[in-house]
Request: fold
Amino acid sequence: MHVDGELERLRREGIEDPEDDPSVLVRPVSGAAPRLFFNKVPELRSAENRLHLDLWAEDVDAERLVRLGSTRTARREDRVAMADPGGNEFDVLPAE
Reply:
């Protein structure tokens, strides 16, 4: 995102100083590793797991993940909500 656009997004959220941004993007030095985006959420922790992954895949229905033990929990517009065998939730979105 362009810097001016990002600053405007922060202002709309009431954040004037970029250092106070509750979101953090961690990018690898090379393109070989995934990007991780961390967001502060207003809800209190209600369970042990607070990590939610969004995965981009060619197969949005994630047949391979189902075969490996994941379950589909909902279909939302362009994504499928899933849970791993431990109950941890994640979304599968169409690859860009």
Summary: DSSP finds two helices and six strands in the chain. The mean pLDDT is 81. The first strand starts at residue 23 and ends at 26.
